[in-house]
Protein backbone atom coordinates (compact mmCIF):
# COMPACT_ATOMS: atom_id res chain seq x y z
CA UNK A 1 0.00 0.00 0.00
CA UNK A 2 2.71 2.46 1.02
CA UNK A 3 4.77 1.52 -2.04
CA UNK A 4 1.84 2.31 -4.37
CA UNK A 5 1.26 5.66 -2.64
CA UNK A 6 4.94 6.55 -2.89
CA UNK A 7 4.94 5.59 -6.58
CA UNK A 8 1.81 7.67 -7.29
CA UNK A 9 3.46 10.76 -5.82
CA UNK A 10 6.76 10.40 -7.65
CA UNK A 11 7.99 12.44 -10.58
CA UNK A 12 8.60 9.22 -12.52
CA UNK A 13 4.89 8.34 -12.21
CA UNK A 14 3.79 11.67 -13.71
CA UNK A 15 6.37 11.52 -16.50
CA UNK A 16 5.14 8.04 -17.38
CA UNK A 17 1.56 9.33 -17.52
CA UNK A 18 2.63 12.18 -19.82
CA UNK A 19 4.40 9.75 -22.13
CA UNK A 20 1.27 7.57 -22.29
CA UNK A 21 -0.91 10.44 -23.57
CA UNK A 22 -1.91 10.19 -27.20
CA UNK A 23 -1.86 13.97 -27.75
CA UNK A 24 0.75 15.67 -29.89
CA UNK A 25 3.89 16.61 -27.89
CA UNK A 26 3.11 20.31 -28.34
CA UNK A 27 -0.43 19.95 -26.94
CA UNK A 28 0.81 17.92 -23.98
CA UNK A 29 3.63 20.37 -23.24
CA UNK A 30 1.25 23.33 -23.44
CA UNK A 31 -1.22 21.58 -21.13
CA UNK A 32 1.49 20.80 -18.61
CA UNK A 33 2.84 24.35 -18.74
CA UNK A 34 -0.66 25.68 -18.14
CA UNK A 35 -1.07 23.37 -15.16
CA UNK A 36 2.29 24.38 -13.72
CA UNK A 37 1.33 28.06 -14.07
CA UNK A 38 -2.00 27.53 -12.30
CA UNK A 39 -0.26 25.34 -9.71
CA UNK A 40 1.76 28.33 -8.52
CA UNK A 41 -1.33 30.50 -8.01
CA UNK A 42 -2.69 30.69 -4.45
CA UNK A 43 -6.05 29.18 -5.36
CA UNK A 44 -5.61 25.85 -3.63
CA UNK A 45 -8.56 23.56 -3.96
CA UNK A 46 -9.49 25.04 -7.33
CA UNK A 47 -6.25 24.60 -9.25
CA UNK A 48 -7.23 21.44 -11.15
CA UNK A 49 -10.67 22.84 -11.97
CA UNK A 50 -9.21 26.12 -13.26
CA UNK A 51 -6.42 24.41 -15.23
CA UNK A 52 -8.71 21.84 -16.87
CA UNK A 53 -11.29 24.51 -17.74
CA UNK A 54 -8.68 26.74 -19.37
CA UNK A 55 -7.18 23.69 -21.12
CA UNK A 56 -10.59 22.81 -22.56
CA UNK A 57 -11.10 26.35 -23.83
CA UNK A 58 -7.61 26.62 -25.31
CA UNK A 59 -7.68 23.04 -26.67
CA UNK A 60 -4.57 21.74 -25.00
CA UNK A 61 -4.20 18.51 -23.05
CA UNK A 62 -6.56 18.54 -20.06
CA UNK A 63 -4.83 15.58 -18.44
CA UNK A 64 -1.42 17.23 -18.74
CA UNK A 65 -2.89 20.44 -17.28
CA UNK A 66 -4.22 18.50 -14.29
CA UNK A 67 -0.85 16.80 -13.84
CA UNK A 68 0.93 20.16 -14.00
CA UNK A 69 -1.04 21.53 -11.06
CA UNK A 70 0.63 18.93 -8.88
CA UNK A 71 3.65 21.20 -8.39
CA UNK A 72 1.62 22.00 -5.30
CA UNK A 73 0.66 18.89 -3.42
CA UNK A 74 0.28 18.15 0.30
CA UNK A 75 4.05 18.29 0.78
CA UNK A 76 4.83 21.35 -1.33
CA UNK A 77 1.81 23.61 -0.85
CA UNK A 78 3.08 25.50 2.20
CA UNK A 79 6.63 26.04 0.84
CA UNK A 80 5.26 27.16 -2.56
CA UNK A 81 2.81 29.61 -0.97
CA UNK A 82 5.55 31.02 1.27
CA UNK A 83 7.83 31.39 -1.76
CA UNK A 84 4.98 33.05 -3.69
CA UNK A 85 4.51 35.53 -0.83
CA UNK A 86 8.19 36.44 -0.48
CA UNK A 87 8.71 36.78 -4.24
CA UNK A 88 5.57 38.93 -4.44
CA UNK A 89 6.82 41.16 -1.63
CA UNK A 90 10.15 41.49 -3.42
CA UNK A 91 8.46 42.43 -6.70
CA UNK A 92 6.18 44.93 -4.94
CA UNK A 93 9.14 46.34 -3.01
CA UNK A 94 7.24 45.57 0.16
CA UNK A 95 8.66 44.38 3.47
CA UNK A 96 7.67 40.77 3.98
CA UNK A 97 6.08 40.23 7.35
CA UNK A 98 3.11 38.47 8.87
CA UNK A 99 0.49 41.20 9.36
CA UNK A 100 -1.32 41.58 12.64
CA UNK A 101 -4.84 40.27 12.20
CA UNK A 102 -7.57 42.04 14.13
CA UNK A 103 -10.32 39.46 14.62
CA UNK A 104 -12.82 42.03 15.93
CA UNK A 105 -14.59 42.43 12.59
CA UNK A 106 -14.92 40.53 9.34
CA UNK A 107 -13.74 43.54 7.29
CA UNK A 108 -10.50 43.79 9.28
CA UNK A 109 -9.87 40.08 8.72
CA UNK A 110 -10.40 40.57 4.96
CA UNK A 111 -8.10 43.60 4.82
CA UNK A 112 -5.37 41.60 6.59
CA UNK A 113 -5.87 38.88 4.03
CA UNK A 114 -5.27 41.36 1.22
CA UNK A 115 -1.86 42.16 2.71
CA UNK A 116 -0.91 38.53 2.25
CA UNK A 117 -2.95 37.51 -0.80
CA UNK A 118 -1.89 40.28 -3.20
CA UNK A 119 1.88 39.66 -2.84
CA UNK A 120 1.23 35.92 -2.86
CA UNK A 121 -0.78 36.18 -6.09
CA UNK A 122 1.79 38.41 -7.82
CA UNK A 123 4.62 36.10 -6.71
CA UNK A 124 2.61 33.10 -7.93
CA UNK A 125 2.09 34.66 -11.35
CA UNK A 126 5.79 35.52 -11.62
CA UNK A 127 6.99 32.06 -10.56
CA UNK A 128 4.25 30.40 -12.60
CA UNK A 129 5.41 32.13 -15.77
CA UNK A 130 9.04 31.15 -15.19
CA UNK A 131 8.36 27.51 -14.33
CA UNK A 132 5.67 27.04 -16.99
CA UNK A 133 8.09 28.21 -19.69
CA UNK A 134 10.78 25.85 -18.38
CA UNK A 135 8.36 22.93 -18.16
CA UNK A 136 6.97 23.60 -21.65
CA UNK A 137 10.34 23.42 -23.39
CA UNK A 138 11.65 20.57 -21.23
CA UNK A 139 8.61 18.35 -21.64
CA UNK A 140 8.18 19.17 -25.33
CA UNK A 141 11.77 18.12 -25.99
CA UNK A 142 11.33 14.94 -23.94
CA UNK A 143 8.10 13.99 -25.71
CA UNK A 144 9.44 14.74 -29.19
CA UNK A 145 12.46 12.56 -28.48
CA UNK A 146 10.15 9.77 -27.31
CA UNK A 147 8.00 10.10 -30.45
CA UNK A 148 11.13 9.86 -32.61
CA UNK A 149 12.24 6.72 -30.77
CA UNK A 150 8.86 5.11 -31.43
CA UNK A 151 8.85 6.20 -35.10
CA UNK A 152 12.34 4.75 -35.61
CA UNK A 153 11.29 1.53 -33.92
CA UNK A 154 8.23 1.20 -36.18
CA UNK A 155 10.34 2.06 -39.24
CA UNK A 156 12.87 -0.66 -38.33
CA UNK A 157 10.11 -3.24 -37.88
CA UNK A 158 8.57 -2.33 -41.25
CA UNK A 159 11.96 -2.62 -42.95
CA UNK A 160 12.57 -6.03 -41.40
CA UNK A 161 9.16 -7.35 -42.40
CA UNK A 162 9.57 -5.98 -45.93
CA UNK A 163 12.80 -7.95 -46.41
Automatic annotation (TrEMBL):
The keyword Protein biosynthesis does not apply. Keywords: Membrane, Transmembrane, Transmembrane helix. This is DUF2062 domain-containing protein. The lineage of its organism: Bacteria, Pseudomonadati, Aquificota, Aquificia, Desulfurobacteriales. It comes from the Bacteria. The chain crosses the membrane at residues 32-57, 116-139. Residues 11-147 form the DUF2062 domain.
Amino acid sequence: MMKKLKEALSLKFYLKKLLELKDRPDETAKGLALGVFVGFLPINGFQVLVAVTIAAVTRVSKIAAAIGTHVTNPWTTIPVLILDYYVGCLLLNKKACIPHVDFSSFSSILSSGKEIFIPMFIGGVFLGVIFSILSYFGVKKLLEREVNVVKNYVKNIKEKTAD
